[in-house]
Predict the structure.
Amino acid sequence: MIFHITTSKEWGNAQLKGEYLAPSLKTEGFIHSSTLNQVIDTANAFYKGQPGLVLLCIDENKLIAECKYEKPTSLGHHDPKIANLFPHIYGSLNISAVIKVVDFPTGENGLFQLPKELREE
């Protein structure tokens, strides 16, 4: 399973359209995703303090678009915790590949922790 961080509003719009199109698909050619071990560091590096987020839990085997594991693309970002390969989805995310959606609130300090639902898996 891989994970994508988005807003609950963007996810709601995707459900109406039948597919999810992240802004990065237009600007970079793919949708950024993370593994379970990467998602918290990713969230804290790029979304610290941002409310209204959800985690899309994606079954890679159900993806229609190709998924490649590649180095991070963020220019100027050198956090050693997230210097490994990340799953990038090269196309729209079909709704049927999203097997669970988990609310992803920040803690009081603005940092994220792995939601309880995912710690139990």
Notes: Residues 2-119 form a domain with the ADP-ribosylation fold fold (CATH 3.20.170.20). The longest helix spans residues 8-17. The mean pLDDT is 91. Residues 61 and 95 are 13 Å apart (CA to CA).
